[in-house]
Each structure stands twice: as C-alpha cells, then as structure tokens.
Design brief:
Helices cover 49% and strands 13% of the residues. The chain has a 6-stranded parallel beta sheet, sandwiched between helices. Helix 2 runs parallel beside helix 3. The chain has helices at residues 16-26, 41-50, 67-77, 92-101, 113-124, 132-143, 161-171, 176-182, 187-200, 206-215, and strands spanning 7-12, 32-38, 55-58, 82-87, 105-108, 129-130. The radius of gyration is 18 Å and the shape is elongated. The protein has 2 domains: 3-139, Rossmann fold (3-Layer(aba) Sandwich), CATH 3.40.50.2300; 155-215, Winged helix-like DNA-binding domain superfamily/Winged helix DNA-binding domain (Arc Repressor Mutant, subunit A, Orthogonal Bundle), CATH 1.10.10.10. The protein has 10 helices and 6 strands, in the order βαβαβαβαβαβααααα. The protein is an alpha/beta fold.
C-alpha cells in the first residue's frame, strides 16, 4: 500500500495512556497512519479542521465534549470521516446512542489488536462493525427480551464501577459539580454518567432513579 493510500486515523480518548497504547498497537501497521490524537470531542473537531482523517476512534465518556456529541458533529461537518466508537461500555443503550449519533463501528477496549484493525478497515470501507462481545449482548437482548418489571440477574452488572460511585453520591444528595469534585473529574463527565445511569435503569428522573436503586439494592 502506498503512503498516500494509508488509512488516516485520529485517536480520541481522555486518557493519555489509552491514546499512547493504541498508537503503539497500530504503529507497525503499514495500512494505517496516525495523523493526530485528542483528549475530548472538541479537540477532535478542532484537529479535523486542519488535519483530514478517514477514521476517528472515539471514546464515549469524555470531559468538555463527549463521544455522542462529537460523533454527531463529525457526521454533520465531515461526512466522509467515519467514526468507530472505542469504549469500555458494553451495554445496549450506549451502543444504540453511538450508532444513532453517526458512528459506523463500535468496539470494546478489551478487544485485541487484530479486531481493532479489522474494525477500522471495515468501517473505512463503509461496512458497519460491532465488537463480537457487544454484538452477542445485543443478540441476547433480541432472543431473550426483558418483560416489564423483569431484570437480568444482578442489576448492578448494568452499571460500571464509576457509575455505581456516581449513583451512590446522587443518592446522598450531591450535585453534579460536587460529585465532580469528589471524584476528581469534570462536571460534564458526571452529567454524562448521570444520563447513562438514567437510561440504563430506564428512570425518567432522579427521584425515580433513587427509588429504582433502593428497590434493586444498588444502594443501601
């Protein structure tokens, strides 16, 4: 493959160690060129304004501008640039939101180097791709849909460790800003976590979320 034919990649993740790790994984791939990296969606958009890319690897939960908002903006402003969501979140709500926002691929951070490259190449060529583990979960929901009021075993499994921490602080009455201070992160990140928790638990508001959390023993 000629240098000009390489797939140009931008890596967007709020953790520098993740960005560097992905760069290392793809560094020796002759079909890929890393043209830049960003720590949030806003930086990715700024970078695209001066640095064209074929594919953006996009984290979901980030400060300043999260993956959902950034993906929608890229889809509108740079329609030729494809987005592959790269996340630790293996849940139906997150996958649907990213795909609805315009992502053409969704891969888990637990995936291997070969699957990551396959996802990039397929999406670059216009073929949608969902990580095998995530796809199996979606398939399970289709085959075994939840009836109203039913749950899939331990409800805490649907929330990440950080979401459980945020939920506990919400239950104690802390605001998003106060939670952000306690967890040493941004208010925007906490707002994203709160929204994800509401969607995962199908709670319409904070009061219903707290009731749900107590009923399902997510908090004591």
């Amino acid at each position: 493959m000629k240098q000009s034919d390489k797939i140009r990649i931008i890596i967007t993740d709020d953790h520098k160690i993740i960005r560097e790790g992905i760069c290392s994984l793809l560094a020796n791939n002759e079909e890929i060129e890393i043209v830049g990296d960003a720590s949030n969606g806003a930086e990715a958009l700024d970078l695209l304004a001066t640095t064209p890319a074929d594919v953006v690897l996009m984290d979901v939960n980030m400060p300043v501008m999260d993956g959902y908002e950034a993906t929608r903006a890229i889809h509108e402003q740079y329609p030729d640039t494809k987005v592959v969501a790269l996340s630790v979140l293996n849940d139906e709500t997150c996958i649907h939101r990213m795909l609805e926002s315009g992502a053409l691929g969704y891969i888990l951070k637990s995936s291997g180097k070969e699957e990551l490259f396959m996802a990039i190449k397929l999406v670059y060529n216009g073929t949608p791709y969902i990580s095998s583990d995530a796809a199996m979960q979606l398939l399970d929901r289709v085959i075994n849909p939840l009836q109203e009021g039913e749950t899939h075993g331990n409800e805490s499994n649907i929330l990440s460790k950080r979401e459980m921490e945020v939920l506990a602080l919400i239950a104690e009455g802390y605001t998003n800003a106060e939670i952000a201070d306690k967890l040493f992160t941004s208010k925007r990140t906490i707002e994203t976590h709160r929204q994800n928790i509401l969607e995962k638990t199908k709670s319409k508001n904070t009061a219903k979320l707290i009731k749900y959390a107590f009923q399902n023993k997510l908090i004591a």
